[in-house]
């Protein structure tokens, strides 16, 4: 079932307030440690050479999109390639972008933090973020000297919207001395109020690196609850959630198992606990890709944003992908035409207050120092 645009809007605007705090005592050993993956282990696999040095658009998309679509897209891709050269620009594409963007024009692909880190290594002057707003902000935080553009300013995130800097200040009053661990899917201002950031791939190690009995883990309640199953540290979670991942259910996954004997189920830890119970593997987007390339399952259900299955399926033709198709309406605001317009008109530039950027960068850098 798909939600209408109005329904998405209602979910997106829903925002918890301070009383919605859940405390989850540690309960280790529900999942084995071999289910962890470091998102940065996959960076090299996720990088593609600049598309301008590769085959033409038709060859890049061959077998991924129908020929008729490729023919329509070809002039647009060529225009984007030319603009990239003129602007000395790179396009960063999140794993949830549609295949035309992901395979057709992206220079660097991966999860949000991997994209930001890799962008700092490029000689480009301009970064176009084919992702949502917090990702563009993170790219700016890590690359303050570069111009960062986002093709659509409305590309937000239900998770990032669920918490504000003021909420964190109130939490600190309620739990004095308890460190704040913040998922990277947050605004720059929220990162700036945090002690340390984390990703879905390193959250447990980040929590344990602090050497304390309890932490506040913000803002994704499901990721926080999952972390609580992996550690003895008490986790205080915020009631935020990803509008895409919270819609999956364990019941629908059991139907896949019953009707497709032998099928593997892999899930993102932003999913609710009953979904993770059903999964054969739980991991970040990069972790799921790594698991697929290692395990090479015959058939798999990928429980995350739908476009990611499309993108990975193009690289693993021998695996049959079954997709419970939940799309992120924010990610889908990014289009090929929008990317072309961003490069042509140098819009929409994402700026972060320098004082906020300095504090946010500290929280990100502390995370990067954690060994996993
Ligand atoms: S998939 Fe979820 S976490 Fe990612 S941008 Fe969309 S709403 Fe935010």
Describe this structure in words.
With 372 residues, this protein is an alpha/beta fold. It has a five-stranded mixed β-sheet, with helices on both faces. The chain has a four-stranded parallel β-sheet with strand order 3-2-4-5, sandwiched between helices. The chain has three domains: 5-30 and 161-242, Rossmann fold, CATH 3.40.50; 47-157 and 331-353, 3-Layer(aba) Sandwich (Rossmann fold), CATH 3.40.50; 245-322, Rossmann fold. The protein has helices at 5-13, 43-46, 57-61, 67-87, 99-104, 112-119, 133-142, 158-161, 165-174, 188-192, 203-209, 221-228, 250-259, 273-278, 285-295, 306-315, 336-345, 354-369; strands at 21-24, 89-94, 108-110, 126-130, 147-149, 180-183, 196-198, 214-218, 234-238, 264-267, 281-282, 299-303, 320-322. α4 packs parallel to α17 (336-345) and α6 packs parallel to α7. α12 links the parallel β8 (214-218) and β9 (234-238). Residues 1-20 and 25-53 have low confidence and may be disordered. The longest helix has 21 residues, at 67-87. The structure holds iron/sulfur cluster (SF4). Iron/sulfur cluster (SF4) is lined by residues 132, 157-159, 185, 242-244, 305, 328, 330-331.
């Amino acid at each position: 079932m798909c939600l209408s645009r109005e329904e998405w809007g209602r979910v997106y605007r829903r925002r918890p307030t301070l009383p919605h705090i859940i405390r989850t005592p540690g309960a280790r050993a529900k999942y084995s440690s071999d289910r962890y993956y470091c998102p940065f282990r996959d960076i090299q696999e996720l990088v593609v050479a600049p598309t301008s040095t590769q085959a033409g658009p038709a060859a890049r998309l061959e077998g991924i999109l129908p020929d008729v679509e490729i023919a329509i897209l070809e002039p647009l891709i060529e225009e984007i390639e030319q603009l990239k050269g003129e602007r000395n620009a790179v396009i960063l594409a999140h794993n949830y972008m549609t295949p035309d963007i992901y395979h057709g024009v992206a220079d660097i692909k991966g999860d949000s933090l991997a994209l930001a880190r890799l962008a700092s290594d490029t000689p480009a002057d301009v970064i176009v973020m084919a992702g949502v707003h917090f990702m563009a902000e993170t790219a700016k935080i890590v690359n303050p000297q570069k111009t960062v553009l986002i093709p659509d300013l409305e590309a937000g995130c239900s998770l990032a919207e669920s918490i504000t800097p003021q909420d964190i200040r109130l939490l600190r009053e309620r739990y004095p001395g308890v460190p704040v661990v913040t998922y990277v899917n947050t605004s720059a201002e929220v990162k700036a109020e945090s002690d340390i950031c984390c990703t879905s791939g390193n959250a447990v190690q980040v929590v344990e690196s602090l050497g304390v009995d309890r932490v506040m883990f913000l803002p994704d309640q499901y990721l926080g609850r999952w972390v609580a199953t992996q550690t003895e540290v008490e986790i205080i979670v915020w009631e935020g959630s990803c509008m895409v991942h919270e819609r999956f259910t364990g019941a629908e996954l059991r139907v896949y198992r019953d009707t497709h004997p032998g099928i593997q189920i892999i899930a993102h830890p932003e999913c609710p606990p009953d979904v993770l119970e059903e999964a054969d593997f739980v991991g970040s987007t990069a972790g799921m890709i790594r698991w697929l390339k290692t395990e090479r399952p015959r058939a798999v259900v990928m429980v995350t944003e739908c476009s990611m299955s499309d993108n990975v399926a193009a690289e693993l033709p021998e695996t049959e992908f079954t997709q419970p198709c939940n799309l992120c309406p924010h990610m889908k605001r990014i289009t090929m035409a929008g990317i072309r317009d961003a490069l042509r008109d140098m819009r929409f530039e994402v700026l972060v207050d320098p004082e906020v950027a300095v504090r946010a960068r500290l929280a990100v850098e502390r995370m990067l120092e954690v060994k996993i």
